[in-house]
Each structure stands twice: as structure tokens, then as C-alpha cells.
Give the backbone structure.
Amino acid sequence: MISRRKILTAAAAGSVASTAVRAASFGNPDEPPQGVINTKGNPASLTDPGPQNPAIGGQFPSAQFPPPTDVSDMPHFWASFNNAAKRVQDGGWARQVTQADFAIAETISGVDMRLTAGGIRELHWHLAAEWGYMSYGNCRITILDEMGRAQVADVKEGDLWYFPAGLPHSLQGLGPDGCEFLLCFDDGKATEYNTILLTDWFAHTPPDILAENFGVPAETFAKIPLHQLYIFQGKLPGALAADQASVKSALGLPPHPFTFSLGSSAPVKHTKGGEVRIADSNNFNVSKTIAAALVTLHSGGLREMHWHHNADEWQYWIKGKGRMTVFDSGPRAVTMDFNPGDIGYVKRSNGHYIKNTGDTDLQFLEVFRSSYYADVSLSDWLTHTPPELVAQHLNVDAATIAKFPNNKPAVMPE
């Protein structure tokens, strides 16, 4: 007869054997192990014979087969303008990704807009602040501040603008081929299609009030548009100097420009792996609610392991190919791949890194609802903590820790 003790002994031995087979290891720390290692001896576990879209699936190898260090899940932190519906008009188009489409994005919403040469985004204002990045071409901006001081300026690829909430402005594409630009609003719920438009207000104001307000006969407004223009084809504007002279006020110019040339500014970090440029209220004084970094990673470069303690990070991927892993308590670690036109989002204080996985430069924007840019570098922390203390955490010697970068490189290799 088989005794109860024998059964328990056999069960315990089987449990130990199972644990030995599935034990955690360097580069694969979780039990049960994560990823492809689970399929040893059973390659059919990797096949995917069901319905699929290879054109989409092929862009996300890290989702198809995550690295074995990934564990658990977290809110989806990938979105894209590439599958956002366009609002197309004569003169250009717009498409947007807000929190309604991208649940994790609480602090920033984004718009991708194209204007033809002469195309006009009509005079309007927003309830949220607008931060713009020129990704292509040339554009003329106009804005009036609350004191009645106006600015008219031309911006090119790599330039920024910032329009505080409630200040009226306009955008117009210039020659030879208009422009395309990114807009970020400092509210994840803000929508580009819910703006306060000049034509809407005129059309919904009684003619006698218009006449009284502007001191002209009511018939002056008989041909105003009865429906909003939003984006429309206009005539190319004249010389910039002429437009600037036409809006000049006795009060002078705004004390701080509403535009900034990020792309041609000096990098704050430059290494063998790439470079970082920053725009926040310290050098772009009017930008009180949005800070940003323009990061370029050369092929093989790494945006070092870091986190941002002051704000969530909203990302716009401009060119190249990259992979990002986001780490949170739990532990939770998830990896995702990104391509041009994609959007990423990292919650405040979540650790992350970005690797250039292509053979060309990778460039992306880090955007924050904050007046200033800040990050905490993992290597900087560890090299400014007593080395014996760090050594006891990592089971490495202090001499090795002394080789870690201690100057916050931002981009590796140094």
C-alpha cells in the first residue's frame, strides 16, 4: 500500500524538480519564466495561424514576443496619428489623439495639422494652452496678448510656438509647399475641434449688435460666412515686415516672443550616442505650462534609464525606429515599438529607456505639462550614493560601480 507520507514526499520532490526547471535566472527573473523560453520543446506555441494583419503586427515585434524581462501589464502607452481620422478641408487637414482615444494620456492631447501654401487655420482661441512644433515647411503665426501687444512671425521646421490659454491667434502656410506641425494642448481632454472661432461668433451675433460694436452700418456684414471656416484656402501673405508694421501698437511688442527655434538651439547634452535639446520657461519664457526635449539617438544609441518626477511624459516620434520599456512597481515592465507619427506616454515617476532599433537616426519629442524640464538618471543616482551601499544591493563590487557614468549623460554611449 502507498502511505500518505510517500505521497507527500513524491509531491514535494516533483515540486522541487518543477521549480528547478522553471527557476528564475539573470535576464529572465520571473517565475514562471516569461516569453519564448516557455516554448522549449514545443515550437508550436510560437505559431499564430489565426486571423492577423501582418502589416500592423510586423511593426510591433516586442508585443509579439516580449523580452523575458517584461512582466505583468500596464495601461497601453502607444497611440498613433497614422490611424487617426483626418478632418480634410480646402486648404489643409487635421487629425488628433486625445484622452478619449488614448486613455492613459491625462495631461496632454495632440494634433497633427497640415496647411497648404496660403492655407489658413482661421482666427481662434482655446481654453487650453497651445504648444506647436514645426515638422515640415514654413508657417506664419499671429497672436495678440491681453495687453493688446501683437506678434507676427514666420516659423520653420524645428521651431516652436506657445499660445497661452485664451489668447487669440492664427496660422497660415507659406510657400513653397505650406507646412505641417504638431500641436500639444496642456489638457488631455482638449480637442482641436472645439475651439472658439471668429466666424462662428460673427454668425451668431445679431447684425445690429455687430454694427454697434464696430461702429459701421449693419449691411457691412451682409456677406459674412454663415458657417465656420476652420481651415480654408487663402492667398499667400505678403512680406513679413509689412504684416508686422500693420499690427504695430503704441504699447510695443510682447515682452517675450511667442516663438522659439528649438531645432537650431545648442544641445544641452551631446554624446557619441546622440544629443538633447530643451525648451522650457527658462529659455522659452512664455511657455509656462509646457516643457519639452528634442532627443536624437544615433543608430544603436540609448536614451538612458531615467524617470521624470515632476510630470507625465507625452512623446511624439518624428523619425527612425525605436523601442521603449516602461517600468512600474508591482513589478510591471512592458516593452513597445515605435515608428514615425506614433505617440508614447509614460506616467510620472515610471522608469523607462528608449533604444534606437533602426540603422538611421531616431528623433522624438518628450513633452510635459510643466514649466520646467527635469529628469532623474538611474546611473547618476547610483554613482552619487555611497558605493558600498549600492554594491550590497547589486552584488557587484565598488570598483565596478565607479565605472558607471556619473555625469548624467542622457544618451549612451558617452
In short: The CA atoms of residues 115 and 192 lie 15 Å apart.
